[in-house]
Design goal:
By secondary structure, the protein is an alpha/beta fold. It is 55% helix and 11% strand. Among the domains are: 86 residues, Arginyl tRNA synthetase N-terminal domain (Gyrase A, domain 2, 2-Layer Sandwich); 106 residues, no CATH class; 184 residues, Isoleucyl-tRNA Synthetase, Domain 1, CATH 1.10.730.10. The strands form 4 sheets. The protein has a 5-stranded parallel sheet, with helices on both faces. The chain has a 4-stranded antiparallel sheet with strand order 1-2-4-3. The structure holds one RNA strand. One of its GO terms (molecular function) is arginine-tRNA ligase activity.
Length: 596
RNA sequence: GGUCCUGUAGCUCAACUGGAUAGAGCAACUGCCUUCUAAGCAGUAGGUUAAAGGUUCGAGUCCUUUCAGGAUCACCA
């Protein structure tokens, strides 16, 4: 039983014995006592004044006294207005720490016997990844790690958008302007090469439009009649018909792109268990349209188009199949949802997709539920806000994007120059130094993108946004490296920091108590982050813990402490903080160094 | 126009889901390296939580209205 549970049980008892009022312990809550008051946990009395029929102060006195008399963990209390502040004795905190310290699999909650698929990344194969994708990938990866720590079996899935008109645009431009360029001959990563032709298409296309407009066409007509656009549409038809030359070009260019993506994913530290390709799935879902018609979930209009009527759910009518019998986006999403279930028998499915598709997923999920899918209640859209630049929104066609590869490299370079400036790499081999720069650069970037509540849009200023001080990844990494250094020294001079080493310790300092309380919250935070699908919960916790540790580090001596038990305890406490930091940062996909 | 999201210190974000005097970081200023890593620690300053009503013992949090920013409402993806 945890300390909180013990206190709550005793409070419940107090109500029974003192006020003859029955209230279940698990319906009561404690909150951490604010720093400016004495105590560890606070019980708010206001809701119970009707029961006690006393002033708040007197009610608090009664309950507080009962706790001191009957609850072994409570050492004292005070009442301020309607707040009962409860102090827990030091032995209890020590035993909490003993338990934590000896716990195996720290940060791994018991198996839930549930499978969840997390779909994220989902790139288009006509251009390289950019800053927005970084937020998506880091979020998806972190959420996967967090769910896994919560005891779910997690399948990380990447649904690659490898077909369609936008892919054909790159292909058409390549045919016109490519002159047989390859990634090798051009010295260009494959995804960047495809992106180059996508941009070239747009340029040439705009030029054609202008020419047509000068000849007197409306802009709308010009867009439809521009030869390049007609070519792209023709290429899409050929691709769908399986035209050999088209398919060969498509395969070639996509294989270049995948090589490029692989390199980017490797650098990001992101991986997938399952790839889906839209070229395989884009025809799925038509059978569901039939099924929906039979079940009366969909209806057919005069021109043959099929619709879902969601007006009763507060939404509009939604097209699910065109009049000519061809699919729309949501048709294939319905099919893919079924496919995922058939492949893995998943209980839950998380879609990490930007908030511009909120409505789409609202519709999709409502449809799947109306169709009675067994996984219907387990569908979640992890909707995240866009990343804006100081100059406004990113537009890939206009080249106003922050490229993912470039940005990661910049971060690593900055980390390198910063580290050298501080003179922190004495004794590092070149290899080790390089590894450290990557750790720090990517740690800073990942932490920056993950510490914010996912649903909020965020501003990214390339010059100013990434810091290495304060609430940042490197701050936490630094805290870990500091402790690693302490542990090295402890081993070297032979400090026994096993549980026996500080057994029977009689007193702990305030700062140490604060650390124990924080350490004890780790699994609660993991559970919360899992429920909310929010890595920012973990990020915030990591910062709080590192901050509190650094205070401890500055205030209390370790090796110059003369009492052997106290010294052992402080090393053990440090070791536990390091373990927790490492484990928590892993949930964010961030590595921590032993030295920096 | 309908629907949804967001609005907290100059900037970037918190606030344990309705609790005490709204907290951190950055930027500014002041201290602390002859003891375990100063990418650190301590402190000063910075707020009408966009605005106005309401609900109650209590509201940044819930409700209503207004304002501002964004997204979305295609036989596009």
């Amino acid at each position: 039983m945890t300390i909180q549970e013990q206190i709550l049980n005793a409070i419940s008892e107090a109500f029974d014995k003192t006020f003859n009022h029955q209230v279940a312990a698990d319906s009561l809550t404690l909150q951490p006592t604010r720093k400016e008051f004495e105590g560890n946990y606070t019980f708010v009395l206001f809701p119970f004044l009707k029961v006690t029929r006393m002033k708040p102060e007197d009610s608090g006195e009664k309950i507080g006294q009962y706790l001191v008399d009957h609850c072994a963990v409570v050492s004292g209390f005070n009442v301020v207005k309607g707040f009962l502040n409860i102090s827990v004795n030091e032995e209890s905190w020590l035993s909490v720490f003993q338990n934590l310290f000896q716990k195996e699999n720290l940060g791994q909650l018991p198996p839930k016997d549930q499978k969840v698929m997390v779909e994220f990344s989902s790139p288009n194969t006509n251009k390289p990844l950019h800053l927005g994708h970084l937020r998506n990938n880091f979020l998806g990866f972190a959420v996967s790690e967090i769910l896994s720590a919560n005891g779910y079996e997690v399948i990380k899935a990447n649904l690659v958008n490898d077909r369609g008109i936008h892919i054909c645009k790159s292909m058409v431009a390549y045919q016109h302007f490519g002159e047989g360029e390859t990634p090798e001959s051009g010295g260009l990563k494959g995804d960047h090469l495809a992106g180059k032709y996508y941009v070239l298409f747009d340029k040439a296309f705009k030029k054609e439009i202008n020419e047509l407009v000068e000849k007197g066409l409306s802009e709308e007509d010009a867009k439809k009649q521009a030869p390049l656009m007609l070519e792209a549409q023709e290429m899409l038809r050929k691709w769908e018909a399986g035209d050999e030359e088209t398919v060969t070009l498509w395969k070639t260019m996509n294989s270049w792109v995948y090589e490029g993506f692989d390199a980017t994913y490797t650098k990001m530290g992101v991986s997938f268990d399952k790839y889906y390709y839209e070229s395989d799935t884009y025809l799925l879902g038509k059978n569901i349209v039939e099924e929906g018609l039979e079940k009366g979930v969909f209806f057919k209009k005069d021109n043959g188009s099929v619709w879902a009527d969601l007006t009763a759910e507060g939404l509009d009518e939604k097209l699910v199949l065109r009049g000519d019998g061809t699919s729309v986006y949501i048709t294939q999403d319905m099919g893919t949802a079924d496919l995922k279930y058939e492949d893995f028998k998943i209980n839950q499915s998380v879609y990490v997709v930007g908030n511009e598709q909120d409505y789409h997923f609202d519709v999709l999920f409502k449809i799947m539920r109306k169709l009675g899918r067994p996984y219907g209640q387990g569908l979640f859209h992890l909707s995240y806000g866009m990343v804006d630049l100081p100059t406004g929104k990113m537009k890939s066609r206009e080249g106003t994007v922050v490229d993912a590869d470039d940005l990661m490299q910049e971060m690593i370079d900055t980390a390198a120059s910063h580290t050298k400036e501080l003179g922190k790499i004495d004794g590092f081999s070149e290899e080790q130094a390089k590894e450290l720069y990557e750790m720090l650069g990517l740690g800073a970037l990942k932490y920056f993108l993950l510490k914010v509540d996912p649903k909020k849009r965020m501003l990214f200023n390339p010059q100013e946004s990434i810091e290495f001080q304060g609430n940042t990844g490197p701050f936490i990494q630094y805290s870990h490296a500091r402790i690693a250094s302490i542990l090295r020294k402890a081993d070297q001079i032979g400090v026994n920091y096993t549980a026996e080493g500080f057994d029977g310790l009689s007193h702990i300092e305030e700062g140490e108590k604060e650390l124990i309380i924080l350490l004890n919250n780790f699994e609660k935070k993991i559970a919360q982050a899992g429920e909310e699908l929010s890595p920012s919960v973990i990020a915030q916790y990591m910062f709080d813990l590192a901050k509190e540790y650094n205070r401890f580090y500055a205030e209390l001596p370790i090796f110059s402490e003369e009492n052997e038990k106290v010294r052992s305890f402080r090393v053990a406490l440090s070791a536990q903080v390091a373990k927790t930091l490492k484990s928590g940062m892993k949930l964010l996909g961030i590595k921590v160094p032993e030295r920096m």
